[in-house]
Amino acid sequence: MITLDAIGTFALIVGLLTLTPGLDTALILRTAAHGHHRRVWGVVLGIQSGTLVWGVLTSLGVTALLTASHLAYQTLRWAGAAYLVWMGGRLLWTTWRSSSESPQTEGTRSTTGAETKAGSGAGDTLLGGWRQGIVTNLLNPKMGAFYVAVLPQFIPAGAPHLAPGVLLAGVHILLAVVWACALIAFAHALRDRLQRPAARRYLDRITGTVIAAFGIRLALGQ
Fold it and tell me: Which pLDDT does position 128 carry in this prediction?
């Protein structure tokens, strides 16, 4: 049986990991800042679905095989890197293209397009956010490597791995959801400023740069 001390120590480790600014933070903040209320919760659910999958696979020993197989790990690493660079590059390209438009066109977009995105626009879907969140999480082999390195240390020797592994992954998910709620509340509090076209462009550029940088780092194996 897993002890409370082990759960507490694991919670401290993953809590610090959750608070560290990274890809998930950038993705949630950007989606929330755009006023995509349904999509941002889809992103949160997708990321945490991926975390649960990594926890289950690690408990079953599957991720250990992944990290042990050079070909499998490299394939996942390159797929994840390509996806992140593509997603970040698309954000950057969109912002640079919009900034080159005339002020009149931009003004039209700010009164119509922003309202669409802030409400129930085509991109504001729970399923779309969930798909983006889970793909981003599952294509990050470092998540699997982290769970392989950390999770088994907190599971008692000789005990079944699945139930304790899912429990610990649940602790990680709980902390991550709490942090996501704080990020969404922060973005909501600043929504008037963040909904301005210039602010949205800068936010998208920052987010796109962060995501693309993570992809490049992943490709370089750092």
Answer: 92
Q: How far apart are CA 188 and CA 148, in angstroms?
A: 36
Q: Nearest to residue 114, comparing CAs of 13, 185, 204, 205?
A: 204
Which one of 141-155, 168-182, 201-215 scores highest in mean pLDDT? Answer: 168-182
Task: Count Cβ atoms below 10 Å from residue 205 Cβ, excluding itself.
Answer: 17
pLDDT digits (tens, 9 = 90+) for 80-95: 889 889 888 888 888 7
d(CA 66, CA 93): 34
| Domain residue spans of the chain | 4-83+97-196
What's the mean pLDDT in 201-215?
Answer: 83
Q: Residues 155-186: pLDDT tens digits?
A: 877 777 888 999 999 999 999 999 999 999 99
Residue found by looking up tokens 């085509």 in the block: 122
Q: Which residue has the tokens 């954000």?
A: 91
Q: Do residues 30 and 43 make contact, with C-beta atoms less than 8 angstroms apart?
A: no
Secondary structure (DSSP) of the chain: ---HHHHHHHHHHHHHHHHS--HHHHHHHHHHHTT-HHHHHHHHHHHHHHHHHHHHHHHTTHHHHHHH-HHHHHHHHHHHHHHHHHHHHHHHHHHHHHHTS-HHHHHHHHHHHHHHHHTT-TT--HHHHHHHHHHHHHT-HHHHHHHHHHGGGGSPTTS-SHHHHHHHHHHHHHHHHHHHHHHHHHHHHTHHHHTSHHHHHHHHHHHHHHHHHHHHHHHTT-
